[in-house]
Amino acid sequence: MKTSHAGEIRLLLSGGDRRSIADSNRVRLLIENNPSLVSELAALTADEDWLVTQRALDLMEKLAHEHADWIAPHKKIFIGSLAASDKWEIRLQIVRALPLFHWSPTQAHRVEEILLENVVFPQTFVRAWALDGLATLAERRMTLMPIVRRHLRDFERSPSKALQARAKQIRARLSRPGAPRNSRSSKA
Predict the structure, then answer these.
(1) pTM of the model
(2) How distant, in Å, are the alpha carbons of 26, 55, 99, 122 from that of 30?
(3) Cα–Cα nearest to 146, from 178, 116, 176
(4) In whole angstroms, what is the distance from residue 162 CA to residue 165 CA?
């Protein structure tokens, strides 16, 4: 029975082009009704079809927002070899998922490396979400805050409206009462 679910999930995530989500919404419903299928979804992150891999990662990231406990047993996928993918769509799912989990100190170091590498990645969405994730981590680990603020300044000066907008959202989040501060002003 497990094999039939794996095949069904793969089939639903197949087809189309890089802008398509195939039948990802149906897969999400299947998993929400039967969380044990997360293992089948996680296995598809190693699929030979990179679009299936990307869609599986996308679903894992989306599910982690509401059910991080379902995805946590498979979270190492996000810090493995896929983090160095040549496909920006895969990197985007990685950087969006990383801040959703608790990591061991060794894993946290790897998470920071991945986010720092991607904050300068050529693709705008990857860069924006990598900085967003780094800012989320900096709220827990103050030593990252100067790095976040430096990149915020770079994004604010960028000709990219998307990077400017993300920088504005991150600054607003970091300036909320109770948000971490370092010895410099929040506009530094």
Answers:
(1) 0.88
(2) 6, 15, 25, 35
(3) 116
(4) 5
Q: What is the mean pLDDT of residues 136-141?
A: 94
Instruction: Quote the CA–CA distance of 79 and 146 in Å, as a whole number.
Output: 24
> How far is it, in rounded angstroms, from Cα 54 to Cα 37?
17
Q: Interior CA angle at 54 toward 16 and 74, to 5°? A: 145
Q: Torsion over CA of 81, 85, 88 and 91, rounded to 10 degrees?
A: 10
For residues 140 and 180, what is the distance between their CA atoms, to the nearest angstrom? 8
The string over 146-173, giving b where at least 16 C-beta atoms fall within 10 Å of a residue's C-beta and e elsewhere, is ebbbebbeebeebeeeebeebbeebbee
Residue 20 confidence (pLDDT): 63
Rounded CA-CA distance 56/90 in Å is 10
How far apart, in whole angstroms, are the C-alpha atoms of residue 5 and residue 10?
A: 8
